[in-house]
Amino acid sequence: SQSLFYKAGLVQENHKVYVTGFFGHQENEMAWIGVSDSLIQQDPQTNANSAEDDQFTQGLVQLQHVWVSSRQSTLRTSVYYNYLDGNYDFDLNNFLGLTSTDELYNYALESHFVGGFVNHSHRVNNWKFVTGVHINDYRREHVGTEATIGKLYANEGSRRSYSLFERLRFRKDRFIAYGDLQWRYTSFDYEGSVQMDPLDWYFFNPKIGITYELSDPIDVYVSVGRTGREPTRNDLFNGWDDLQADTLGRADMNITDPEEVADVEIGVRVHKDKVDASINLYFMSFNNEIVLNGQ
User: What is 176-233 written as a DSSP string?
Assistant: First the structure.
């Protein structure tokens, strides 16, 4: 494995510009298939893989600009691009405990992730306001092949996301109150041998909280919030890389409803000299929870 990280910046009185990024490449023998405890007891270095290899290349570049227009206002802008290209082998016979043959599966993917965000923070007396918007587009191509057959499938999925948020914070004496509001839209589209209609999800994620400073080192807080998330591609496709068809030839979709959770928290924090301690109680209520339950 090799990797390179870089960061360069131009800093002036009211403006800061940064370019940050990394580039990495790896070619490792895969070791993700589990082995039985009895084999591990015989040899802790037992690897269930056969002649399976992988290689992945990934790079990210981000351009950031910070403009401090006054003592009260700061504008932050950022654009980014992430690229990934890689593939890995899978020996099905070895996985099933059979003798390996020339049959060897390979799963390849290539993705492009581009986006940007802007947020503006402003202070007025005891108030602080932060307003922001975030937009991104993610596309990934999947290609499955088998050494003795050739290409098995090729498909591409795309996901777009748009979000707008507002944060308000008020401080008066020992009281601190805040509220977060986020509006978010995301969609998923797919092109492959099995057709499916595009999916859309809309979310409104609010959160409010209050903190009271009992003394310099001790404060108590309470917060109430709700958030939602859409199912991932694995959730939608029952874990398949390539969307499967049901007995009628229609898209065999699994989970399409979004998950939502409401959360209530109360806690105490202590900050004194070299000691940080906290006690937290919470209650979470899920709707359409997306979780691997073993079934």
Answer: EEEEEEEEEEEEEEEESSS----EEEEEEEEEEEEEEESSSSEEEEEEEEEEEE---H
For 228-262, the pLDDT digits (tens) are: 999 999 999 988 999 999 999 899 998 899 999 99
pTM of the model: 0.85
Contact 102, 147 (CB under 8 A): yes
Distant-in-sequence, close-in-space partners of 184: CB < 8 Å, separation ≥ 6 = 161, 162, 163, 164, 202, 203, 204, 205
The alpha-carbon radius of gyration of the chain (Å, integer) is 25
Backbone angles phi, psi at 234, to 5 degrees: -60, -40
Q: 141 with 154: CB under 8 angstroms?
A: yes
- Which tokens go with 169? 């914070």
Put the strands of the sheet holding 15-26 in their side by side order. 2-11, 15-26, 54-68, 73-90, 105-124, 127-146, 150-172, 175-191, 199-213, 218-229, 259-272, 275-287
Q: Please name the residue that has the structure tokens 């090799």.
A: 2
The one-character DSSP state at 99 is P
CA distance 143 to 158: 15
Residues 169-192, buried b or exposed e (16+ Cβ, 10 A)?
Answer: beeeeeebebebebebebebebeb
Q: Whole-angstrom Cα distance, residue 20 to residue 80? A: 9
User: What is the rounded CA–CA span in Å between residue 165 and residue 143?
Assistant: 37
Query: pLDDT tens digits for 112-166?
Result: 999 999 999 999 999 999 999 999 999 999 999 999 999 999 999 999 999 999 9
Instruction: Using alpha carbons, select from 156, 140, 133 the residue that is nearest to residue 82.
Output: 140
